């Protein structure tokens, strides 16, 4: 009989007694020597691994990326070098704050992380379904996440803490307005856009650099839940997004996104009125129009969730030749954070897990460590340089130098003059991008969320946040003030609108 059908222990010993443990007589105690019983119980006790510290609940599928337009004038990345070229990908979409068992329809941005398995190694574009983010310095990330997750005292999520953080960090406003719109509760995962969010570099064959932003636009059309529909779906089917994506792919209804880039030359960068590497800002699509690149299609469900999704590891550090980083400070922080998190979550050899492996065998001088499951370099040299192996450096991959001028290293205030306009773009979003219905829903969603602010600091937090809404748009602030039953704000003429250097200025008198 084929080995495939034989029931064996992990070490290959036949499992003859699968159902019953060895006992002293039919009604007596068990014998310690029933090794298979130990193996089953011990393995079960170790089934759970650490969940991701953020983005713990997610769904993923394999698919292909196909080039439809030529962008070789911007990048020499090989996956884009030919029309019609296909690259294998895996895309994982997730909520951010909830735990692994939390409901899919929570109000939250959604992660949108793509791994491209290219001939030059794996490229991970680890973005969200929003073009901006809450903070613009990585030092604030753990504070931000702590405020969104469970309160250490009562272990409940708390609107008070969530809005307390937002109100002290007005750079979050742009993302907060998107989060509070119905885009914060997308209908599953197929009906939302994805964004690289940061600025990245593209480098072409002539070694010329441009900066780019990536946009994946859903071909399924945008579809969102209203506040009440999302609330209802959380109890009716907490796993709605996973079910919806899985069943669509299983039935051959493959979801697709069109990839576009926005391109900014280094010259244009220096002439902009705002910092193009600030992830709380978008680039105007009028000035920097979307350029089509290709189509991403999901067409294969993972064959095992734990092996291929739970053990999946993305890292913004993973860029390939022709694509590189930008000076975006949040991106710079993320370059360190992800591999560090994965060494802790999955172990130091997490890149050897099949779903994380690149298309070809890698050779370097890293060896050993927990869970080494390759041949570990066999007997080859484990140091460099050496007189024995044939490995060589591929100098053609050398990265273009970046001129950093005579800059002085310091802890610069991220909200200093010229970096502190937190209000203009959210104002454009509120007045020009959203339609009447979306504006109404946004206000209602904010009111419902802020009604959860409780305790002795509640009025202080509400007024601090209303102050920021007022700078975005007076009507927005008034509607929310009325909805919350507090006096409408009149901060419009505040002298600190354009020059908010210190959070103490947000401690407003009530
Ligand atoms: C997951 C850190 C900002 C998108 C994670 C993980 C960490 C982390 C530690 C878990 C990684 C793992 O265990 O595999 C940070 C830090 C940030 C930051 C320190 C800012 C300083 C962002 C931003 C975006 C983003 C700006 C999107 C634009 C994601 C996504 C995942 C993730 C999509 C889940 C990846 C997956 O599906 O496995 N982040 N993050 N993060 N982050 Fe961030």
TrEMBL record:
Entry keyword Iron: yes
Family listed: Belongs to the catalase family.
Keyword vocabulary terms for this entry: Heme, Hydrogen peroxide, Iron, Metal-binding, Oxidoreductase, Peroxidase
Keyword Oxidoreductase attributed: yes
Listed cofactors: heme
CDD domains, A to Z: catalase_clade_3
EC code: 1.11.1.6
SMART domains linked: Catalase
Residue span, Catalase core domain: 8-392
Name of protein: catalase
């Amino acid at each position: 009989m084929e080995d495939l059908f034989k029931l064996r222990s992990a070490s290959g010993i036949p499992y003859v007694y699968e159902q019953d443990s060895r006992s002293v007589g039919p009604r007596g105690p068990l014998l310690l020597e029933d090794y298979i019983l130990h193996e089953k119980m011990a393995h079960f006790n170790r089934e759970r691994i650490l969940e991701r510290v953020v983005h713990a609940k997610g769904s993923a599928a394999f698919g292909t990326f196909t080039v439809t337009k030529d962008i070789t004038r911007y990048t020499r990345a090989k996956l884009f070098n030919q029309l019609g070229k296909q690259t294998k990908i895996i895309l994982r979409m997730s909520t951010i704050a909830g735990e692994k068992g939390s409901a899919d329809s929570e109000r939250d941005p959604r992660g949108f992380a793509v791994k491209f398995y290219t001939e030059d190694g794996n490229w991970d574009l680890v973005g969200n379904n929003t073009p901006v983010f809450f903070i613009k310095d990585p030092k604030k990330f753990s504070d931000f996440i702590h405020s969104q997750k469970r309160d250490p005292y009562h272990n409940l999520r708390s609107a008070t803490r969530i809005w307390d953080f937002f109100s002290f960090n007005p750079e979050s406003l742009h993302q907060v307005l998107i989060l509070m719109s119905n885009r914060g509760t997308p209908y599953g995962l197929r009906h939302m856009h994805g964004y690289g969010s940061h600025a990245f570099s593209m480098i072409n064959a002539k070694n010329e650099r441009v900066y780019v932003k990536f946009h994946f636009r859903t071909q399924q059309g945008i579809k969102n839940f209203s506040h009440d529909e999302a609330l209802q779906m959380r109890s009716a089917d907490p796993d709605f997004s996973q079910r919806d994506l899985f069943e669509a792919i299983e039935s051959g209804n493959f979801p697709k996104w069109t990839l576009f880039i926005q391109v900014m030359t280094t010259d244009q960068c220096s002439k902009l009125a705002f910092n193009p590497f600030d992830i709380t800002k978008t680039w105007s699509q009028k000035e920097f129009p979307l350029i089509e690149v290709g189509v991403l299609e999901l067409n294969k469900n993972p064959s095992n969730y734990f092996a291929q999704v739970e053990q999946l590891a993305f890292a913004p550090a993973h860029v390939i030749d022709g694509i590189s980083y930008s000076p975006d400070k949040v991106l710079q922080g993320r370059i360190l954070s992800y591999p560090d998190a994965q060494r802790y979550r999955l172990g130091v050899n997490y890149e050897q897990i099949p779903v994380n492996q690149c298309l070809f065998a890698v050779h370097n001088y890293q060896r050993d460590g927990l869970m080494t499951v390759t041949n570990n370099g066999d007997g080859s040299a484990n140091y460099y340089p050496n007189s024995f192996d044939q490995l060589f450096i591929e100098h053609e991959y050398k990265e273009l130098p970046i001129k950093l001028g005579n800059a002085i290293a310091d802890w610069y205030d991220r909200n200093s003059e010229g970096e502190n306009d937190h209000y203009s773009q959210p104002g454009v979003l509120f007045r020009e991008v959203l339609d009447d219905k979306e504006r109404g829903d946004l206000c209602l969603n904010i009111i419902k969320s802020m009604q959860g602010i409780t305790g002795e600091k509640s009025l202080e937090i509400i007024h601090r946040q209303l102050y920021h809404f007022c700078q975005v748009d007076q009507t927005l602030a008034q509607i929310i003030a009325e909805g919350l039953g507090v006096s409408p704000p009149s901060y419009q003429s505040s002298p600190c609108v354009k020059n908010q250097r210190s959070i103490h200025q947000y401690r407003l008198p009530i």
